[in-house]
Design goal:
Elements lengths: L48 H26 L8 E3 L2 E2 L5 H14 L1 H4 L3 E5 L2 E5 L7 E2 L1 H9 L5 H5 L3 E2 L4 E2 L2 H12 L10 E5 L2 E5 L4 E3 L2 H12 L5 E3 L2 E3 L5 H15 L4 E5 L2 E5 L1 H7 E5 L5 E5 L1 H8 L14 E5 L2 E5 L4 E4 L1 H11 L7 E3 L2 E4 L5 H5 L5 E9 L7 H13 L2 E3 L4 E3 H5 L10 E6 L2 E6 L3 H14 L3 E4 L26 E3 L6 E7 L3 E8 L5 E6 L3 E4 L3 E4 L13 E12 L2 E12 L4 E4 L4
Length: 606
């Protein structure tokens, strides 16, 4: 029994609770202290302090348990609760579920997302199909962004957040589409340039311009696509990378001193002098699309400028050739040459051109193998005649026109076009002038026949075009005559004129193509040898329409006046039909409008 003093509180009739002391790890023995006094709470006696501590611990544990439960709720799923994309709740979901839900929402919006964009560029407006420029929502990237929207525990418990979808676009295709909208309205940069007029540098100063910036355009279109509102794409002021100050420095430190004196080129086979005129023709200042000028010596141009001076030093390689002998293609081996190391010569020349003294370089001669060997040529699949085409001419070989046809035919004979390569007739023959053996003959100039050097080469061009056409090769560039001549098939014919009008075809097969030419006093024939791709290639014509009759025009008599009988004008379609295994595999349409050729009379009106 316990005795209380006179001031002791009334006896407590609540049951006694026994509490076993707990020792926390590493806490050591509990210190001995004086008993803590009891504290009144205003409603009766207070509990002992140890009891109150235990009750507080219990409450804290309850709170922590509640918080832990809320945290588990907040962190359920990969995407934080309250997160939405395009108005769709993705919060609390796994990434896989969020991915499916977002794709379902995009499917529901498919028609809206496919609606053409109303885009304005510099006041010009057009519709652009989203699919044409690669506009799309990147679902995996959007879900990843939603999952990482806010990882803070408290933020995940309360509030909501909207995550913008990750939008992708094909920057190049978008830029092409916007340029079509802009047309020729853009004020492009004036690119810096340094060229030579003789040996005098001619300078074009750089100027800024207003133009589309592909990356900026993509940002604007990505941001505005899902809003469904009209989009205005800005033009951005752009400055060439080479400034006026840098351009002036290039002129004073390189362009002018480069042509101030000759350069001596020394080799193991002798020396030669590179005059300022040859330097001016070979020193090029090329600007990239940003307007940055880079100087370089073009050794190919240098060779052309030096001409015969290099003949005593260099031996050019010769490619293997192929001829038709005994009705089948036969390859003849080429030979190696010995030429200056072009890369080293370009580098070393550029280094001495700014100098006033010591203008001397050493040229290294290196063995140069042919690009095309007989072994490679034999493996190109040139084994059979795929097509042949012949046109007729009058006058015999005494005619200047006939001689021009024979000259260009000899130049092209034996040409091999490798798989995937494009043949250019102008590029192959170069200029066709008096120096190249061509003569004056009638050509069409300003709508009438006049004497001109190289007349008749269009007939060879038409013959070559038809041979490649019936071989099924890809037409890259050709232009029919302005008037129709009955010696040519309508529509399927081509003119040529140096340097503006060219004929090009591409070898779109996996085999080599050999051009074989031959001529008589009245015909020119071109045959294509390769491996056949199609069983047949034929032409189907549509009817002539919009027929016009010629006018009669009187000209002043003289050497330049050539009379004509006049030819009707018309429009016609021609279809190239290619079959393989008896089935049409390709059908191509060619259309041309011929003017009515006037009836020219040399003399005054009666």
């Amino acid at each position: 029994m316990t005795l209380y003093g006179e001031n002791s509180p009334p006896a407590d009739d609540r049951p006694t609770v026994q509490v076993t002391a707990v020792t926390w790890p590493d806490a050591g023995p509990e210190p001995v202290t004086a008993a803590a006094p009891e504290e009144p709470d205003g409603n009766g006696p207070r509990r002992p302090r140890r009891v109150r501590m235990l009750l507080a611990a219990g409450i804290t544990g309850g709170v922590l348990a509640t918080v832990a439960g809320a945290g588990a709720w907040a962190y359920a799923g990969d995407v934080p609760r309250g997160t939405s994309v395009l108005g769709t709740e993705l919060g609390g979901r796994s990434r896989a579920d969020a991915d499916r839900e977002l794709r379902a929402e995009l499917d529901r919006r498919a028609a809206t997302l496919a609606t053409p964009l109303k885009v304005t560029v510099d006041g010009r407006t057009a519709d652009i199909n989203p699919a044409d420029v690669g506009l799309a929502v990147d679902v995996p990237a959007t879900v990843a962004a939603a999952a990482e929207a806010d990882a803070h525990p408290v933020s995940r418990l309360v509030g909501s957040r909207t995550v913008e979808p990750v939008v992708t676009v094909d920057v190049s295709r978008l830029d092409d589409a916007l340029r079509k909208v802009l047309g020729d309205q853009a004020q492009g940069m004036t690119m810096p340039a340094i060229t030579y007029l003789g040996t005098k540098p001619k300078v074009v100063q750089p100027k800024p311009g207003l133009a589309l910036n592909p990356q900026r355009s993509a940002e604007v279109v990505r941001a505005g696509w899902l809003a469904g509102a009209p989009i205005t794409v800005p033009l951005v002021e752009t400055h060439p990378a080479t400034t006026p100050e840098e351009l002036d420095r290039l002129v004073s430190e390189l362009a002018k001193p480069a042509v101030a004196a000759p350069v001596t080129l020394r080799t193991s086979k002798g020396s030669l002098t590179v005059p300022p005129a040859a330097i001016a023709k070979s020193l090029r200042f090329s600007a990239d699309k940003t307007g940055k000028l880079t100087p370089a010596v073009d050794v190919k141009r240098l060779r052309a400028a030096l001409g015969d001076k290099l003949a005593a030093i260099e031996v050019p390689p010769k490619d293997a050739t192929m001829k038709i002998s005994g009705g089948r293609p036969t390859a003849t081996e080429g030979r190696s040459g010995q030429q200056l190391d072009a890369a080293a010569l370009s580098r070393d020349l550029l280094a001495v051109l700014p100098k006033a003294d010591g203008r001397e370089v050493i040229g290294e001669l290196k063995p140069t193998p042919p690009q095309l060997t007989a072994e490679k040529l034999a493996g190109l699949g040139i084994k059979e005649r795929v097509s042949t085409f012949t046109t007729r001419f009058t006058g015999g070989m005494a005619s200047s026109r006939s001689q021009n046809i024979a000259t260009i035919a000899r130049k092209v004979d034996g040409t091999v076009v490798l798989p995937g390569k494009t043949f250019s007739l102008n590029g192959h023959t170069g200029e066709r002038g008096y120096a190249q053996g061509y003569r004056d003959a009638p050509v069409i100039l300003d709508g009438k026949l006049v004497p001109g050097v190289g007349g008749g080469t269009s007939q060879f061009t038409t013959t070559l075009f038809n041979a490649t056409y019936y071989a099924g090769l890809e037409d890259v560039e050709h232009k029919p005559h302005s008037y129709w001549f009955d010696r040519y098939p309508a529509v399927i014919e081509s003119t040529i004129f140096w340097p503006n009008l060219d004929f090009k075809f591409r070898n779109n097969t996996e085999y080599g193509v050999l051009i074989d030419t031959s001529y008589t006093s009245s015909t020119i024939t071109v045959s294509i040898w390769s491996t056949k791709i199609y069983d047949s290639v034929k032409t189907e014509y549509g009817p002539r329409r919009n027929v016009t009759t010629p006018k009669q025009i009187h000209l002043t008599p003289g050497p330049s006046c050539i009379e004509t009988n006049g030819i009707n004008g018309f429009t016609q379609d021609a279809f190239r039909v290619m079959k393989k295994g008896g089935v049409v595999v390709k059908r191509e349409k060619f259309t041309w409008r011929y003017d009515a050729e006037p009836r020219y009379v040399c003399g005054p009106k009666p």
